[in-house]
Each structure stands twice: as structure tokens, then as C-alpha cells.
Amino acid sequence: MELNEVITTVNDAVWGYVLIFALVGCGVWFTWRTRFVQFRMVGEMLRLLTDSAVNTVEDQTQIAKKDKRGKAKHISSFQAFAVSVATRVGTGNLAGVASAIAVGGPGAVFWMWIIALIGSATAFVESTLAQLFKQRHKDSFIGGPAYYIQRGLHLRWMAITFAVLITCQFGLSNNSIQANTICGAMQEAFGWSPMWVGAVLAIMGLFIVFGGIQRIAQVSSVLVPVMAIGYVVLAIVIIVMNFDQIPHVFKVIVLDAFGIEKVVGGGIGATIMNGVKRGLFSNEAGEGSAPNVAATATVSHPVKQGLIQALGVFTDTLLVCSCTSFIILISGLYDVSELNGIALTQSALQSEVGSVGPVFVAIAIFMFAFSSIIGNYYYGEANIRFITQSTKVMTIYRILSAGVMVIFGAMASFELVWNIVDFFMAFLTACNLIAIVLLGRYAFRLLDDYRRQKRQGIKEPVFHKSLVPELKDEIECWE
């Protein structure tokens, strides 16, 4: 039995309905306990994108490292949002969506929407917890599931397990997916050799990751808006040009989702499984990845980053993933068995806008996936620092993450890199869901406090750790 077949067998067993029901169940529970926070506070989410905590959290900015001009370094709400969206908005939105449709049928799109709508509440909880339990670190903050597992649950072994899993998932295997997709798109559009494209990506990635979170945040805050807006605008143009087909597209998605009219792909089980898997890979709600960057932001209240990251889930799945889905379904190429992944997306665009389509996707996927590579790297860095402060270990990790795994992804097969990611993603998600279910009560309490302050007319709510006296010895950054 080949390695790829073994991994596929394990993935099917783990990704069976057990983990799917766990994801959906947690999403429904958190939606109910937060009183539908992802729907009721959308306006506040948008407002917080321009929020600056520099003048509202004096104690936090004072502990930040200052640059040569005497200005305190910090990661703003928008920069933290940009880095997390950089990892969310990537190959999952172009290649992942296409793969889900090719294998599970158009109905997979429906289940991607469902997991995003309820998963955004899960994203809120995990990112709020990350802010609550974050720690001081050089020129910013550091935190994430490994930190709230250790400080909130006092389970060091579980925290280390999570740290190892997320490093393998994002810092290593996930970067191979990004490289694989970039190389596939470049070969399809320009005929460039994957080996040379991979080598160039590795050099560029290594240059940026050795610059730390400040450089990563700066690059992401520029790339993410440009790539997302450009791609969405093109998708809207195509949708408007084919507006008469939109009712049919929705009909195909809904009927296929429940097996009423299977168009292509496997049975309803395959439709649900692929929709949930690719939805989770794309928006990462509940996976425990976004909390790592949410913890770096300087804000006046932990709930602010919870709301920001919930918005990130909407941005990723309901906006960008839907754009790709509509382009593919409008083209009618989703039932061509030879097409899968990024090649399907490129062919769909080519059918709508001509030969410029594959070229545009190649450029877009480069921006999407390259920003994901540097964002994914940071997730691994934050968790390696949780285990050890060794500079030698960190240097080895940087070379593996932005160098070796990028080149491996460029040369490996499409099926192998996706199967490896699915394998680690399943166990990583299970570990994080257990933690946030046990710690969720703190996120609920903080949300109640935030809402109370807003009702009192306080524009920028401020959190004090006296709100959770039982954690006074575990909370480091909230005096």
C-alpha cells in the first residue's frame, strides 16, 4: 500500500462524521451561548478594522519595544486581521473550492457556507481566549491555543501536542500546498518548470520570515487587500455578465447538497465531507490557527480580536470562496473529470474571459498563496517558541518551513500534499475544539462585559483582569 493510500484511509476514518459533527456541534453551541454574536455584531466588526489601541491601552504600548525613532511597535487590529486573512485567503479559496466541487459536487459549496456561518462563532471564542491568555514577547505579544491550554487548563502535555501539530500542519505541510498550487498555476499559464518556481518561492519566503512578525504583518497588510479586491472585482464582473444563470447556480448547489439531484461527485456523504473539509481548510474556524496571530494585536479588550477574526471567516468563505464557486458553476466545467484543483479554476476563468483567465489566476494565486506561506510560517514560529527558545531550533524551522517544504510542495503530486494536510488538520482541530469547549465560559463572560460597556456608551471598552479573579495568576498582559 502506497503512502498516499495509507494517508487517505486514515483521513477518511478520522474525517468521518465524528469530527464533522464535532465542528458543527461546537459551532451551534457557541452561536447559542454568544447569542448569535457573528450576526448581531457585524457593524462592530467592521468598525474595529480601523481601531487603534495605541492611545487606549497605555500599559500595553509601554511594554512594546520601541524602534529607532522612539515609536512603540505594535500590531494593530487591521494588521492582525490581514495576517490571519492572508493564511485563510489562499489556495483553499481557488484550488480547495475547485477540489471540493470536483470530488463532492456543487452541493459541497452549501456545506462550506454552513460551516462558515456557524464556525464564525467558534472563531470568535478561540481568538478571544488567545487575547485573554497572551504573553509579552519582544516587540509584540505572543499566544494561541498552546498558551491558553497551558494557562487555562494546566495541561502542559496537551499544549505541547497542539504546538507540534500546528507546526507540522501550517509551518510545514500547509506551505507545501501553497507552493504546489502556485507552481501548478504558473505551469498552466506560462509553462514554467515547478522546480525553478519552487526555488524562487523558497528564496523570497526565507527573506521575509527571517524578518519576524513585524515584516510579516507589513507585507500581509499590503498584499491581502490588493489580491482580495482584485479577485472579487473580477468575479463580480463575471457574475454580472452571467446574471441570468445565478438562479440556476443556487438551485444546483442546494439540490446537490441534499442529494436531491446529484450532478457530479460522490454521494451525499462525500458532498458533506468535502464541503466541511475544504471549508475548514479555507476559513480555519476552530482549527486553532488564527488565534496565534489574534494574540499579537494590541487592543483594549480581548473581544475586539474575537470579533475581527469572526469577520475574517465571513470574508474568506462567504465572499472569496463563493466567488470561485460561482465562476466554476457558471462555466459548467465542474463535471469534466480531467479537471481538478487550480486547473479547474483556471479553465473556468478562461471560458469566461478568454486566454487572460489562466494568467490572471496565476498572478492571483501567487499573491494569495505567497502571503499564506509567510503567514503559515508565523503560526509555527509562535508554537515553537512555546516549546523552546533555542535560536538554533528556530533557524532550522525557518529553513524547513519557507525553504525545504516549499520546494517539496513544488515537486510533489496534488493528491499527496492535500492528503498530508487533511491528516494533520483533523487531529489539530480535535485538540483545539476540546480546549475551547472547556474554556469557552471565559469568552462568554468577556463578551457580556464588552456588551455592557457598549450599552453604557463607552466607545472603546477596556478589559480588566479583575473580571476573572480566578485567573489572576494566569493572565499576564491585562493589568
Topology:
Elements lengths: L2 H12 L2 H17 L3 H4 L1 H7 L9 H5 L14 H12 L2 H14 L2 H26 L2 E3 L2 E3 L2 H9 L2 H35 L3 H16 L2 H30 L4 H12 L10 H16 L6 H5 L7 H30 L9 H13 L2 H32 L3 H21 L2 H42 L24
Antiparallel strand pairs: 1-2
Helix pairs in contact: 1-20, 2-8, 2-20, 4-16, 6-12, 6-16, 6-18, 7-14, 7-16, 7-17, 8-13, 8-14, 8-16, 8-20, 9-10, 9-20, 10-11, 10-17, 10-18, 10-19, 10-20, 11-18, 11-19, 12-16, 12-18, 16-17, 17-18, 18-19
Overall description:
The protein has 479 residues and is mainly alpha-helical. 75% of the residues lie in helices and 1% in strands. The protein has helices spanning 3-14, 17-33, 37-40, 42-48, 58-62, 77-88, 91-104, 107-132, 145-153, 156-190, 194-209, 212-241, 246-257, 268-283, 290-294, 302-331, 341-353, 356-387, 391-411, 414-455, and strands at residues 135-137, 140-142. Strands 1-2 form a two-stranded antiparallel sheet. A hairpin with a 2-residue loop joins strand 1 (135-137) and strand 2. The longest helix is centred in the last third of the chain and has 42 residues, at 414-455. Residues 53-72 have low confidence and may be disordered.
* CA-atom Rg in angstroms: 21 Å
Structural class by SSE content: mainly alpha
Instruction: Choose one word for the global shape.
Output: globular
Average residue-wise pLDDT = 79
The neighbouring-strand order within the major sheet is: 1-2
Biggest sheet descriptor: 2 strands, antiparallel
Helix content: over 70%
With helices defined by DSSP (H or I, 4 residues minimum), what is the helix count? Answer: 20
How many individual β-strands?
2
